[in-house]
């Protein structure tokens, strides 16, 4: 997973860099593929903003958080991404749980009209 970080109107410290890396590792448990995470951390009007963009071939997530403390803002943004990932996972699981007994063995004949089993006998 590729991680890029940018800071605007904010001093880039080792502690902030470590916090971003730690938060990115926390997100890796959800995204095991070769996606990219882009962090944008900045200060505007005394408020600390953190934005996360996650992009992969099959999905894309975005979260933005604001608070008085950059460390807390980063945690809030990660929580938002986690909620999005859980929501998508639940949606996927519900879709595949709707009819678990239905199995199509021959996809070519699945769309053809068939007589009922009683009429065929």
TrEMBL record:
<dbReference type="InterPro" id="IPR003489">
    <property type="entry name" value="RHF/RaiA"/>
</dbReference>
<dbReference type="Pfam" id="PF02482">
    <property type="entry name" value="Ribosomal_S30AE"/>
</dbReference>
<protein>
    <submittedName>
        <fullName>Ribosome-associated translation inhibitor RaiA</fullName>
    </submittedName>
</protein>
<dbReference type="InterPro" id="IPR036567">
    <property type="entry name" value="RHF-like"/>
</dbReference>
